[in-house]
Amino acid sequence: MKFSVPIFDVKxxxxxxxxxxxxxxISFQIFNGEYVAIIGPNGGGKTTLVRMxxxxxxxxxxxxxxxxxxxxxxxxxxxxxxxPQRASHVDANFPATVExxxxxxxxxxxxxxxxxxxxxxxxxxxxxxxxxxxDLKDKMIGTLSGGQRQRVMIxxxxxSKPEILILDEPNTGVDMASQKRFxxxxxxxxxxxxxxxxxxxxxxxxxxxDIGRLFTINQKATICNNPKEALSCEEMSELYGIExxxxxxxxHEH
Amino acid sequence: MxxxxxxxxxxxxxxxxxxxxxxxxxxxxxxxxxxxxxxTETLAHSALVGVAVGLVAGYNxxxxxxxxxxxxxxxxxxxxxxxxxxxxxxxxxxxxxSLAVAVVIVSLGGAFNNSLxxxxxxxxxxxxTEDIYTIVIFGTVSLALLLLFSKELFFIAYDEEVAQTSGxxxxxxxxxxxxxxxxxxxxxxxxxxxxLIGALMVIPTVAALQYRVGFLPTVLTSLSFAIAxxxxxxxxxxxxxxxxxxxIVLCVITIFIASLVITKR
Lengths: 254, 265
Prior knowledge:
The complex is a heterodimer of chains A (about 250) and B (about 260). Chain A has about 250 residues and is an alpha/beta fold. Chain A contains 8 helices and 10 strands. Chain A has one domain (about 10-255): 3-Layer(aba) Sandwich (Rossmann fold), CATH 3.40.50.300. In chain A, the strands form 2 sheets. Chain A has a 6-stranded mixed beta sheet, with helices on both faces. A 4-stranded antiparallel beta sheet of chain A has the order 2-1-4-5, with no helix packed on it. In chain A, helix 2 crosses helix 3 and helix 3 packs antiparallel against helix 4. Chain B has a single domain, classed as ABC transporter involved in vitamin B12 uptake, BtuC (Orthogonal Bundle). Chain B contains 13 helices and no strands. In chain B, helix 2 packs across helix 11, helix 3 packs across helix 4 and helix 11 (about 195-210) crosses helix 12 (about 215-240). The longest helix of chain B is centred in the first third of the chain and has 26 residues, at about 10-35. The chains are: A alpha/beta (about 250), B mainly alpha (about 260). At the A-B interface, strand 6 and helix 2 of A face helix 8, helix 9 and helix 12 of B.
């Protein structure tokens, strides 16, 4: 029963700040095994929406359910791996090796002991292997490049063995070659490990081939079930405004 | 060294000092990484209110310091999470407020004397056996709590929101951290003094951070810097009749400067 209870079930989400409507009447569901991209112009409310799904910000009104449970009652947070937008911007002096960071993924899983079990260590190693950061494990996080950090952050999220991975603009500041490798890795996680992926980006050109559904967020949500068509659809460029144009140019260059 | 340790009061001072060094540096690592450094100053001044109440009303000043520092820590957390106040402003208000209250209480009670002075700047002569018991009991509980939750606290220090969305009880652990820090600060004012304890909490960690090593090595480096400063500072204090707190702080600052120079080369 792959598509039974939705992982996220959002009904009538509204968010206002003073008179300004940031998000209006947003309803959608995300199911197990999906690969969803949330796109929209900067300032359109993508990150705000995701923070609300995770209970980090409060909407003005909404009914949000995770795995069928009300957000306020949901406890199994380790099922969700979240990599926030600013994840790759770490303080250069933060005293953590790559391994220290990836081990954080096991923290909420273990009992009240300071040391991780052999099994935990094995899972941490596997996560580093998947994200190709094993060679970096003793390096300080502050000394890594943007692309390397991004992989470490995702390894940290994978170490908690999540069923769903939410990535907020993880491709910011990462070079094209690393990005391509990264996208194929996400597809692999989705197809082979059956990890549901929610990917937030303002740059949709690169991932269009792999994603299952596309949500565009610009105050309102538009859901396209066929992303390839969506890229050329009128509704979409209307929502996206001038940026739709830029994306098409961008795509031709590569 | 042998001569110095033949005095009972010096044995007590060293014992208290080393325990304080361990507590201050371990808790200080989390405080610095969470960018809470200023909280140490504020809590130290709140602890002083406890000392003032203790001196005037005739209760054990150290116990009263623990109580008042805890109250202040909880008040700070409450103000910070339920009102949108700037946290550094909250700390600043509570710091001056506490000092004002302490001064008024002491002046009304006529206790402006050497006893208060020793709590401001620390005095190795004044550590009693009862103080040692208080420091050992509260210190053991505080250290056990810190070690038990060290991975969670480290995760929160790294990224509070990601920790929260991973199921770490961030609010509870923030509350626990400030409580433990409050207790440790209150215990420390005997040896280092309330005006100088912030330094012993913050500087060893900042010095250790210069070496850019992983989490555990950073904690251990900070710990050894703190213990070295306490031993060196107390010895200098004994032989040259210097105030212990100030001497310890000067030692830790020297280590910090040396670390800066060594790691920049």
